[in-house]
Design a protein that fits this description.
6-stranded mixed beta sheet; 6-stranded antiparallel beta sheet; Alpha-Beta Plaits; 19 strands; 30% helix; 28% strand
Length: 317
């Protein structure tokens, strides 16, 4: 990946998060840095990389102190200005065996690899750390460079919240697959998926519960996908499946299995179990007819609209 090789971080430069202004649609993060006391090396430094909201280029934070405080307070080493973050939320503590994270009785808790921690929890390289609506990856000393590039590549191709592929990757893959299908004379199908009444989940229970629903949705539907199927988060609560060499009837069967795996069991969230349904719209490529990525997505989206209009929790197309 030559494009990633050029992204090596300059660890001797001031951290660009200091005083950084994040667009209003995102929560805001600010890193408070102490003056350098000695040169830094990639081989003996640990770091956090902010992966949600995605900021893997500018959002690399070196851990240089024995204690690194995170919270909404302006006095924190890493200030996260978002209502889901407590003023004193968590602290990273350097011990003889590496860094540990301790929750400071925060309102929403501190999660490591999406599991709430109770006491001090030792961080391993590659662990994810959730603070409110923010998601970070911890990289340990000795592995920062290689894992940083893996983190960047993942951020360029995957949605950090749900683990599904992202819209950029989807569109590039669709362009390639349309050309391949037309050359080989094969059908392919695009399915648009949308979580029903998702706005009411956010409005009633808050965005952190909404995040729980999105993560579970991505996991359940992803488990139904075949090995060569592609599942991507298209935006918000909308997802898209790309099924290569798949005709309409087979695609409908797959969509029905996805619908059932969503509705059959309530989603476990921090607000308790919630009943969730989803609507599906599919469009099939005729290899003998001209087709574009935009046209297929619009056709699938129109069928999704029909599913919504018909009462939701159904497959159309």
């Amino acid at each position: 990946m030559n494009s990633l090789t050029s992204m090596q971080p300059d660890l001797n430069a001031p951290n660009p998060l200091a005083g950084k202004q994040v667009p209003a649609v995102m929560a805001e993060a600010t890193l408070r840095r102490q003056p350098d006391s000695q040169p830094r090396s990639m081989l003996n430094q640990c770091c956090l990389v902010q992966i949600y909201p995605a900021d893997v280029i500018d959002g690399m934070m070196l851990l240089e102190e024995n204690e690194f405080a995170i919270g909404r307070s302006e006095d924190a080493d890493l200030s996260l200005f978002d209502s889901s973050v407590s003023r004193q939320h968590a602290v990273l503590i350097r011990g003889e065996d590496g860094y540990h994270v301790r929750d400071l009785d925060s309102t929403n808790g501190t999660l490591v690899n999406e599991q709430p921690i109770q006491d001090d929890h030792r961080l391993n390289s590659g662990d994810t750390l959730r603070i409110g609506s923010f998601l970070f990856r911890f990289l340990s000393a000795g592995s920062v460079e290689s894992q940083y590039h893996e983190t960047v590549y993942s951020a360029l191709t995957r949605d950090a919240l749900t683990g599904t592929l992202n819209k950029r990757y989807l569109l590039e893959a669709m362009n390639r697959e349309i050309s391949r299908s037309q050359r080989a004379g094969l059908h392919m199908t695009v399915i648009m998926l949308d979580i029903d009444h998702f706005k009411s989940v956010n409005d009633t229970h808050g965005h952190l519960v909404g995040d729980d629903v999105l993560r579970t949705f991505g996991k359940r539907v992803g488990e139904i996908c075949r090995g060569d199927d592609l599942l991507a988060r298209y935006g918000g609560e909308e997802f898209c499946m790309l099924l290569a060499a798949t005709g309409r009837e087979e695609a409908r069967e797959i969509a029905e299995r996805c619908r059932r795996v969503v509705v059959d069991e309530p989603f476990q969230t921090t607000a308790g179990p919630l009943p969730i349904t989803a609507s599906f719209g599919l469009a099939c490529l005729d290899p003998n007819q001209p087709a574009t990525t935009k046209g297929l997505l619009e056709a699938a989206d129109q069928q999704l609209y029909e599913a919504k209009r018909g009462g939701r929790n159904r497959v159309c197309g």
